[in-house]
Structure formats: C-alpha cells, structure tokens
Amino acid sequence: MFAFLSPLKPTQQALAVTLRLWRVTEATRLTAPDLRRFSFGSRVGVGPLDVPSRRFCSRRATTDGLLFRQMFESESSTYTYLLADAETKDAVLIDPVLETIDRDLKLINELGLNLTVAVNTHCHADHITSTGLMKKRVVGLKSAISKFSGASADIHLSEGDKISFGKHYLTVRDTPGHTDGCMTLVSNDQRMAFTGDALLIRGCGRTDFQQGCPKRLYESVHQKIFTLPEHCLIYPAHDYTGRMVSTVGEERMFNPRLTKSLEEFVKIMNNLNLPKPAKIDISVPANLVCGLHEV
Ligand SMILES: N[C@@H](CCC(=O)N[C@@H](CSS)C(=O)NCC(=O)O)C(=O)O
Ligand SMILES: [Fe+2]
C-alpha cells in the first residue's frame, strides 16, 4: 500500500525508513545497547528488578569458549544439557534420557565432542536415565551421581566436587529435599546453575516420595541456590509449561513457593496432592543402576 501510494523509488523508500528510525532513536535518546535490549524484549516488565534477558545466556555461553545446548524430551518434559569446551572438545552431559539417547549421541558425534562424563542431578522418578546404555556406546565415558543418591555410578559426587571438561568445570552443591541425593551443578563463572528438581522455574521438586522433605528443600534452595549471583541462569531438569530458563533474581522474587516463609512452604508442599509419576515404579529401580535394570 505504502509502495503503491509513494512517489519514491524502492531504494529511496528504504532510505526514508532508515532516516525515520534514526530520528526516532535520536528523539528517544536510546543508545545502541538500549536498542539491542529492547529489540530482544530483555527487561522483565518495568519494575524494581533489572533482570537480564534470556539471550544473555547464549551470548555469554558462546563468547568464553563454552559450547552449550539445552535439549528436551517431551514425554517426561525433561531437559538434557550438553556442555563442552569449544577448544578441547571435552564434554559433559547432564540428565540424559533413555528415549533420546540416539539424538544426543548423534549431536555429540556431529559436533566432534569427546563425552567424558554423563551426570544425573538425582535418581529420577519419572524417566529412565540413558547413562548406563551410553557407557556401552561411548568408550571411556563415566557416569556420575550424588553419593547420597544410593545409586551406582563410576563417580560419586558431593559438595564442592568438580566435574572438569577442558578449561571449564561444574561445581557440585548438595541441594537435598526433593530427594536425599539432589545436586545443583554450578558453572565455574557462576553464570549457570543446573538445579535438577530442587528448583524449577516458578516451582520446585515435590517432596512426597524418595526421602522428600520440604524443610530440607527450603533450606537447600535458600542457602545453596538463592545465594548465587542474581543474574546466574537457572536451568532446571523439567518444565511442564514451555519455559526454558530463569535467573536466581527472578526466582528469588517471583517463585510462588520459595518466596514464602518456611512454615507456609511446608504447608504448600504437604498439600500439593499430585498424582505419582506414571513411570515411578520402573524408573527408580532402573536409575539406581544407571538405567540398566531391564535393558
Ligand atoms: N506427570 C509426570 C510427573 C510430574 C512430577 O511429579 N514432576 C516432579 C518432577 S519429576 S520427579 C515434580 O517434582 N513436580 C513438581 C511440581 O510441582 O509439579 C509423570 O507422570 O511423569
Ligand atoms: Fe525428580
């Protein structure tokens, strides 16, 4: 319509649009970084909390030689995370799922990565891990899980342990409460935390089976996760509504369960009345042996 009515040629129209945009920019005194932030919708509302955008994560993750992928398994709504040193190609896989083993190994091969550790944030109740089967298919791969999980693995981890891959590493923070053996894995620059089921986006892991304890979970999240830097990105093991990432600052402010007092939190958790995970009876025994129970 504009082109039809305009007396200008297409190249002149483009120039006019650019000029108009430049004038708007000048008029509103936006700087280049401002424009970049706005164009990605990076600020969450206009409020007291100045939360950086999700794109923050991919930018940071690529600029310092860290290769990072978030992958999704739709039946259990589980996130699997691949992290690798872009130079040495050493890689770590977090919470891989049996159903997506071929997808994960294909990507690892395509990227030419050397997968050294496959780690579970806890003994999952809703899906079977692929770590055991993966060990059969990847020479030298080691499985890892918390020493408090009761599960077998090559590496048993606890507070302060490090999982290294090239120049990068993940540090273990014990965050029990959903299960005894729940861990949060924090990147060496504290920009990313893989919280398993301890902290979900605007939620948290349930506490009604597998040694669950609301008080322990509340203390874990407040002492071990909410003490991380405000901009630290939260990558959970699951999301059931399509969210992919959050930040410590966001969860400290908006998490509907963890912003409450301990007493209120305990009451909420004891009254969730959620149905049991459909696969709990096969998943837990299988995951106690790296998912190899009946494979
Ligand atoms: N419907 C799913 C199980 C959903 C579920 O119970 N999720 C767990 C994490 S997996 S152990 C959880 O803690 N949820 C917390 C919540 O508030 O939803 C299935 O059948 O697998
Ligand atoms: Fe879980």
Automatic annotation (TrEMBL):
The keyword Iron applies. One of its GO terms (molecular function) is metal ion binding. InterPro entries: Metallo-B-lactamas, Mito_Persulfide_Diox, POD-like_MBL-fold, RibonucZ/Hydroxyglut_hydro. It is an enzyme of class 1 (oxidoreductase). Its cofactor is Fe(2+). GO terms for biological process: glutathione metabolic process; hydrogen sulfide metabolic process. It holds the Pfam family Lactamase_B. Signal peptide: none annotated. Belongs to the metallo-beta-lactamase superfamily. Glyoxalase II family. Homodimer. Monomer. Interacts with TST. May interact with RELA. This is Persulfide dioxygenase ETHE1, mitochondrial.
